[in-house]
Amino acid sequence: MRDPKTIKAVSIAITVFGGIVAIIACTLTLQNHAGELEHQPMTAQIPSVHEADLIRCRAVTSTQTDAYETCRKVWAESRRSFLGQKTDSKGSSVGSSAEEALEAKDQSRLPQGYLARPAVGGDQ
Predict the structure, then answer these.
(1) What's the predicted TM-score (pTM) here?
(2) How would you label 54-64 residue by residue, b for 16+ Cβ within 10 Å and e otherwise?
(3) I need a labelling partner for 106 at 20 to 30 A (CA). Which of 64, 79, 98, 120 fits?
(4) Could you report the per-residue pLDDT of 19-53, keeping only the tens digit for each?
(5) Contact, 56 vs 65, CB < 8 A?
(6) Cβ contacts of residue 62 below 8 Å, gap of 6+?
(7) Where exactly are the structural domains of the chain?
(8) Compositional bias of type Polar residues: which residue ranges (predicted)?
């Protein structure tokens, strides 16, 4: 068994066999997971009414005015909950105005003290 050709042939055979076993294992695992997804009840796939609204709004176009306005509200609420923003009593998000965003912006990293550029072409 010390022949180099025999060692090379055995190592190639073991590598090929291991690769085939790995491919079969991955295929069986993927087939098992696909079967689990198909057999779940609809309530497990859509746990809340809010998510059902989001799924329904995927197909709404801007020409469907009533449904589009409803979907805009659903999208805004989804965005607020995702970003963790609170809403006030009127239903608008707190701290979402452009003015508040500009006031809260950190100005400490902006360069200070630059002089104005002189005009090209001499004194004017």
Answers:
(1) 0.35
(2) beebeebeeee
(3) 79
(4) 999 999 988 888 776 655 555 555 455 456 678 88
(5) no
(6) 68
(7) 1-39, 42-84
(8) 84-96
